[in-house]
Amino acid sequence: MAGDAGSYSCHLSNADGATDSAAITLSIASGPTITLQPTNQFVPLGSNASFTVVAAGSSLVYRWSQGATPLSNGGRISGATSNVLSISSVVDADAGSYSCLITNTGGSTNSASATFDRCSPAGNHHPTRQPTGLK
Question: Which of 13, 19, 72, 87 is deepest in the core (most CB within 10 A)?
């Protein structure tokens, strides 16, 4: 508990006398707090996509996942262990849900999931419906 942080020592006494231990300091680490969640991304195939999460706390460690699969840096993926995940030259297989686990000595928290979806090269995310019954 944060209220327990402080300096502590021990006073010992008996019939032969008394002594005090050296003081120790107890610090309570608090877990990360997300201040900006990642947002959904819609980009054309072959373009680049990125997700950003911002968190408060000390000594933060980031770990991005696509669905339940942790990501690793390499190939088209960079930033898998930072607050900004980048995917270059997106392909169909990149579509899905992305989230970030943020940890430190005080605990951990998961970001909200953000969806990546690709759109056609023209930038249309949703295909237009062709009218019926026209001659």
Answer: 87
